[in-house]
Write a structure and sequence with these properties.
- The complex is a heterodimer of chains A (112) and B (112).
- Chain A is globular.
- Chain A has strands at residues 4-5, 10-14, 19-25, 32-38, 44-51, 56-59, 62-67, 72-77, 86-93, 100-102, 106-111.
- In chain A, strand 4 and strand 5 form a beta hairpin.
- Chain A is mainly β and 112 residues long.
- Chain B is mostly beta strands and 112 residues long.
- Chain B contains no helices and eleven strands.
- In chain B, strands 2, 4, 5, 6, 9, 10 and 11 form a seven-stranded mixed β-sheet that branches. Chain B has a four-stranded antiparallel β-sheet with strand order 1-3-8-7, with no helix packed on it.
- The chains are: A mainly beta (112), B mainly beta (112).
- At the A-B interface, strand 4, strand 5, strand 9 and strand 10 of A face strand 4, strand 5, strand 9 and strand 10 of B.
């Protein structure tokens, strides 16, 4: 069974520093991988989706990479801001219909 | 505005009681999903439905039931058989030909 791991579970950085969030998965035969943001007590917002044929996706200050051979994805957030404080979850999809396997998330705090 | 509406935001269950969580979407999505989120854990899939009048068990379906009588609605019932129902419940939907799942704001269920 696919397992998705996110380490560390929590991270605190000063404002302006770049954030690097890690996601690892055990089965390299993924369909795609998604990064989500979750604010406390709220639902999930999709940030970036990387198809299995792609190596990276970018949106503004966010960049996500995918290395299937090593079973890793990394989310980079440039020049972090206090508004980036949230929990970031990754999830991969291993078949075409839509079932997602989630990591436990990394809780990020950006201090002013 | 298009989106997914979950209600209520907070719900309390008494011992032996069944409770129903509502999920409505006006995105015209075919597929709908229910996830459970516990502290420090990723989301786990309870049930999913790809089409009206059809649904499938996810990874942790025991103690839960669903129905899909209308495309817009996918209610989840937490039955008295679910011995540890305290959690944050998230509903999501997606188009069949799209990889991104869209999430509601969640319902927090607690036991009295």
């Amino acid at each position: 069974k696919q397992e998705v791991t996110q380490i560390p579970a929590a991270l605190s950085v000063p404002e302006g520093e770049n954030l690097v969030l890690n996601c690892s998965f055990t089965d390299s035969a993924i369909y795609n991988l998604q990064w989500f943001r979750q604010d406390p007590g709220k639902g999930l917002t999709s940030l970036l989706l990387i198809q299995s044929s792609q190596r990276e996706q970018t949106s503004g200050r966010l960049n996500a990479s995918l290395d299937k051979s090593s079973g890793r994805s990394t989310l980079y957030i440039a020049a972090s801001q206090p508004g980036d404080s949230a929990t970031y979850l990754c999830a991969d999809k291993t078949d075409s219909w839509g079932k997602l396997q989630f990591g436990a998330g990394t809780q990020v705090v950006v201090t002013p | 505005d298009g989106g997914i509406t979950q209600s209520p935001k907070y719900l309390f269950r008494k011992e032996g009681q069944n409770v129903t969580l509502s999920c409505e979407q006006n995105l015209n999505h075919d597929a709908m999903y229910w996830y459970r989120q516990d502290p420090g854990q990723g989301l786990r899939l309870i049930y999913y439905s790809q089409i009206v009048n059809d649904f499938q068990k996810g990874d942790i379906a025991e103690g839960y039931s669903v129905s899909r009588e209308k495309k817009e609605s996918f209610p989840l019932t937490v039955t008295s058989a679910q011995k540890n129902p305290t959690a944050f419940y998230l509903c999501a939907s997606s188009r069949r030909d799209e990889n991104i799942q869209y999430f509601g704001a969640g319902t927090r269920l607690s036991v009295l």
